Amino acid sequence: MPRGMQINRLAKQESRMKILVQKFGGSSVADLECMKKVRGKVLAELKNGYKLIVVLSARSGQTNKLTEMAFQWSDEPDLAELDSLLSTGEQESTALFAMLLKDAGVKARSLTGFQIPVITDESFGSARIVSIDAEYLRSQLEIYDVLVVCGFQGCTASKRITTLGRGGSDTSAVAMAAALGNTVCHIYTDVDGVYTTDPRMCANARRISRISYEEMLEMASMGAKVLQIRSVEFAKKYKVPVWVRSTFSDEPGTLVTQEDEVMMESVIVSGVAFDKDQARVTVLGVPDKPGVSASIFVPLSESGILVDMIVQKAGRDGRTDLTFTVSRKDLKRSVDLMSDLCGRIGGQGVETDSNVAKVSVIGVGMRNHSGVAAKAFQALYEAGVNILMISTSEIKISCLIDENELPLAVRTLHDAFDLQDGETA
Ligand code: ADP
Ligand code: ASP
Ligand code: MG
After folding, report:
1. Rounded to whole angstroms, how far apart are CA atoms 260 and 316?
2. pLDDT tens track for 340-387
3. How many C-alpha atoms does 64 have within 13 Å on its Cβ side?
4. Which of 334, 344, 379, 384 has the most beta carbons within 10 angstroms of its beta carbon?
5. Span 122-177, pLDDT tens digits
6. Chain centroid, CA 19 distance in Å
7. Is the pLDDT reported for residue 239 higher than 60?
8. Which pLDDT score, from 0 to 100, does residue 3 have?
9. What pLDDT sits at residue 13?
10. Which of 127, 188, 179 is nearest to 154 (CA)?
């Protein structure tokens, strides 16, 4: 959950200004043509009487390019300097877009995270927002009609530039709406809403008109990158209504909102998400005695490695195997730690597999229904998909499978729960 953000609102002086936050992702600002479409969306909301905070991502591909460049220059780029470099992607797009607005006669200016400021903690590369100076934003909106704000970035209290993790512009936008209070956030992207699964993976995917914060949080956590997880955490905590819609169409999109505003029909499962960023590590033949799990997971946690699924095999002859999954970027470090540990605790070796993926079915309706897991497992079995690991929560079931079987598994689960037919709002 997001740690509390200090909200510096002008409580007494709630002005009558109507403010809207719009966020446009990388593909929406990729080139001049796209930016002109974005300008059209901005002009339309100005006509509706709004003052606008327009949060932009870097132009598509730019953050990747800058990251590659850093690794050409340095084997292990300094994390603070890397953030300083990556933040230039958003500085480029906001400056260019502010120029376009000014050409159209709009009173606009660009703002970096540092200028506002958006204060974060010091976790370079995945910093968390601590506070946003909403008072300053409001004062600038007295002067300008549109503030074009760099997404994805902030700065520490000691004035170092930070970034919020990939996809972080979503979080910048929702956090600004939260900080301003009573403000709606429109997230514009290259799909016209949140679908029952990634429409690029499954042709039958159906747009959902309303989805609860809880379900969206699970979808995002399970790999649906249409919204960054932290943006949904902020939206839920500060009750920010978030619309996900397309820059390239006029469809209304999907409203992410509180559960009681999502009219639940008899929907049990509302989506299928997947995550290819998974790697499996098995520590073989560790002694089956108290303290062994702690000796494995404490060093992983101390190294900042997030462990996702965990399975312990039933012990035999005083020994057991422990399997867990991590992000692929953490695989090497995990294996190094486990190999070292194996020597010390008398384990029999470490095995890994990075050709795995996680597929999850999600739905708040699962809370009150049994049989969802059985149905999912049966459908995967009939499709010939082998399940390697399972984890569940109140509103989701996840299975680790062979990565090559992922498209089949997604379509199978989507069909099994008739997601192409239902309507969740
Ligand atoms: P942006 O650059 O605008 O932030 P992203 O690429 O981060 O866009 O997110 C949009 C992408 O999310 C879509 O192109 C789509 O492939 C993917 N996606 C994954 N799961 C879903 C889903 N359930 N609904 C809609 N899009 C999804
Ligand atoms: N530019 C950053 C990225 O590519 C942030 C974002 O697009 O949201 O991850
Ligand atoms: Mg994104």
Report:
1. 49
2. 999 888 889 999 999 999 999 999 888 888 899 999 999 999 999 999
3. 4
4. 334
5. 999 999 999 999 999 999 999 999 999 999 999 999 999 999 999 999 999 999 99
6. 25
7. yes
8. 58
9. 47
10. 127
The answer to whether the CB of 254 falls within 8 A of the CB of 208 is: yes
Nearest CA to ligand 2 atom 8: 167
Q: What is the pLDDT of residue 315?
A: 76
| Mean pLDDT score, 274-297 | 93
**What is the pLDDT of the chain when averaged over all its residues?**
93
In the chain, the amino acid numbered 155 is C
Q: Is 271 in the pocket of ligand 2 (CB under 6 A)?
A: no
**Placement of tokens 């200090």 in the chain:** 6
Gap between the terminal Cα atoms of the chain: 26
Residue 357 C-alpha to ligand 1 middle, in angstroms?
18
Q: Is the pLDDT of residue 7 over 70?
A: no
pLDDT for residue 368: 82
Does 167 contact ligand 2 (Cβ within 6 A)? yes
User: Quick one: tokens of 32?
Assistant: 């001049």
Give 381's Cβ-side CA count (13 Å radius). Answer: 6
